[in-house]
Amino acid sequence: MHAYRSHHCGELRKSEVGETVRLSGWVHRKRDHGGLLFIDLRDHHGLTQLVVEPEATFFADVEAVRQESVIRVEGKVIARDDEVINPNLPTGEVEIRLEKFEVLSAADDLPLPVFGEPDYPEDIRMKHRYLDLRRETLHRNIMLRSAVIKTIRDGMEDKGFTDFQTPILTASSPEGARDFLVPSRLHPGKFYALPQAPQIFKQLIMVSGFDRYYQIAPCFRDEDARADRSAGEFYQLDLEMSFVERADVFDAVGPVTRDTFAKFAGDKKVTEYPFPLITYADAMRKYGTDKPDLRCPIEMQDVSDHFRGSGFKIFASILDADQRHVIWAIPAPKGGSRAFCDRMNVWAQKQGLPGMGYMMFGHGNEAKGPLAKNIGPERSDAVREQLGLGAGDAAFFLAGLPKDFAAVAAKARVKIGEEMELTNKDSFALCWIVDFPMYEWDEERKKVEFGHNPFSMPQGGLKALNAASSDEEKLNILAYQYDIVCNGYELGSGAIRNHRPEIMYKAFEIAGYGPEVVDEKFGGMLNAFKYGAPPHGGCALGLERIVMLLAEQENIREVTMFPMNQQGEDLLLGAPAEPDAAQLKDVHIKVTPPIVEKKQ
């Protein structure tokens, strides 16, 4: 018999009754039932119930053992009586009557309970993550993560992709976040950067003649954590393909994504492939966001014409003030009660708005409310017909520049869908958002700037860039950029790349960067393009977000083995930490404390 176990703790069944077995694991729970002691023994694979009788020579040792101590036991497998069978446990039909008992590693008093998984402060969970990881839910999440990655790898290999590793110590890249810098010992005063993404390297792999690359890539970005974004580091499915158009990329990664969700979705429905394609402009107009949650069927509409020159002077004057101003309506099926409309108004005020105008439609489709009264029955009925509403429904209205209220409108749409139970929670709704603007307006710097990935191919190529003279024309240029979205989360983004040096120079020129800047920052890639670059494209999907959705978690730290906390600290090992003088000397660094301004 093996020194520590003949079986694992999730393995024993009725077929082993009568056998003598050896198990090792953690004391998950201990119970005293009228003199008999029961222990739930846990290992990575599951739980097995142990029973100790009072006459056992080691009874006192079992009484004294603490939860989470590691023990080794031997005993005979016996069948449980019918009335005490545990149908929720794979081993629930048997138990082990102990004949030998040994403590392999005694546990001190626990700073964090494992059994029962009660809520506990995050700082304690992070500091004692090894205990937190013993909890069933988190343990299961981490195993799910591993299974998801294996499924993705298998899918990519089946699609003809090859796994290549790209450098970790590299140069700074323009991914939109701050770099983590690494000082060089051999080159005083110079620094490496940890890769925000393998963007440049994966494009160089295509230039090097490899056809289909993928990697489960570590990425490092010095940005603040959010519930759906890790602090410091994360992993992504990174891929690139040569001689492809957008549809080829979609046909490669889309089915792998769909199959991965379907495998782990349980009873939840997953969008069939091909996924819906929604333009960026339509997404913003219908949903107020480029990350729409399509589980909610509500679509917003522009109803400006019904309010133009109407008796509702507030909206009419807003429309007259600026031709860019619009009135958006958010339909609220089944929301036609005063209580619900008042509740939504209070919610809007908490979002920083004075409120939201609304109409309710009663018996005979009659419109009610101050807004309806001001614009009259004919216009109100036209609004109702456009929105496809009827008796018992309502609509909410927001006015002004869409960019100023779209975010709140998007939240309101989701909230209405949830409150009215219109959102299908038992589904994963996937889609592609396409045709992103190549550029956006930087209000702070008063200039045109890249809106997404600067290495994307503009639609229309060099001709479209040369034809754009005014800022407005530049902002109307679209790019071959796309995002994949699920349930309101951006899973990933990508693009057909700009592989032509002359187009890249012009694209950067429009954003205010001269050829000398492009040569200095991206000379390695540009030089490669000058020696024959294939048309290529790809994308990257965030692994933690995929697993977070599949595990039904709201925080990405619940699917990460050793995450940093909200402040970007590793409480387990104490990072970041102050280096000692010798370490600083090696890399030619002197630390200057930040200057704290005195309050007046």
What is the number of beta strands?
A: 24
The mean pLDDT is 95
Major sheet: order of its strands?
Answer: 6-9-10-24-23-22-19-12
Low-confidence stretches: none
Return the structural class. alpha+beta
Annotation field: number of helices:
18
Proportion of strand residues: 15-25%
Question: So what's the overall shape?
Answer: globular
Q: Main β-sheet: number of strands, strand sense, barrel status?
A: 8 strands, mixed
Structure at a glance:
The protein has 600 residues and is an alpha+beta fold. Helices cover 31% and strands 24% of the residues. Helix 4 (136-158) runs antiparallel to helix 6 (246-264), helix 4 (136-158) packs across helix 17 and helix 15 packs antiparallel against helix 16 (515-529).
Describe this structure in words.
- Helix 4 packs antiparallel against helix 6, helix 4 crosses helix 17 (543-550) and helix 13 (461-467) runs parallel beside helix 15.
- Strand 1 and strand 2 form a beta hairpin.
- The chain has an eight-stranded mixed sheet with strand order 6-9-10-24-23-22-19-12, sandwiched between helices.
- The protein contains 18 helices and 24 strands.
- 31% of the residues lie in helices and 24% in strands.
- It is an alpha+beta fold.
Key phrases:
600 residues; alpha+beta; eight-stranded mixed beta sheet; five-stranded mixed beta barrel; 24 strands; 31% helix
